[in-house]
Amino acid sequence: MSEDFILDTDDLERRMEGAITNLRTEFASLRTGRASASMLEPVQVDAYGQMTPINQVGTVNVPEPRMVTINVWDKGLVGKVEKAIRESGLGINPQLNGTIIMLPIPELNEERRRELGKVAGHYAENARVSVRNVRRDGMDQIKRAKADGAVSEDDQKLWEDEVQELTNSYIAQIDKALETKQDEIMQV
Fold first, then answer.
1. Pseudo-torsion of CA 105, 106, 111, 117, nearest 10°?
2. Per-domain residue ranges of the chain
3. In this predicted model, what pLDDT tens digit does every residue of 51-98 receive, in sequence order?
4. pTM of the model
5. Distance between CA 31 and CA 45 in Å, rounded?
6. Of 42, 32, 39, the residue nearest 61 (C-alpha)
7. Which of 7, 62, 118, 126 has the fewest CB neighbours in a 10 Å radius?
8. Looking at domain 9-27+109-186, what is its CATH homologous superfamily?
């Protein structure tokens, strides 16, 4: 390969890995039949004039398989936390007990499982788009180098193949993660 042009494949890989990491975080927020503290990660509370994650206004615990509790540190925020959970689309009905908010996790019905499967599919598609954007960025760098005469046509092909291989491997990881998550959601 040409000495003049070196594509930073580590950078491309790091950015594609970021898409996978983000996808895993989004998948963790999708509730299956079990309670999990991570399901509250995307929920933001309007605390002290700014949007704040729930785990920064209270202690989140999972005392039993079908229950999440939030011990809100500031009494004045209990109502806001409750409202944020109700409006989050998680389908959970918070119950208040002083400064503790209890979230009983209901069994998922078939319809709700299908909806969550679609949401998981949407998250996976966003991750695929992110990976493809990184791919396009890499391909553009290669084309610019070719136009500048820094890389030969043969080397251009080699670099493009490498970027495509990287892309294919990350798309495959996304598809596998989606399949695993959908199986988890559909388990009764």
1. 20
2. 9-27+109-186, 34-104
3. 999 989 999 999 888 889 999 999 999 999 999 988 877 778 899 998
4. 0.68
5. 19
6. 39
7. 118
8. Ribosome-recycling factor (1.10.132.20)
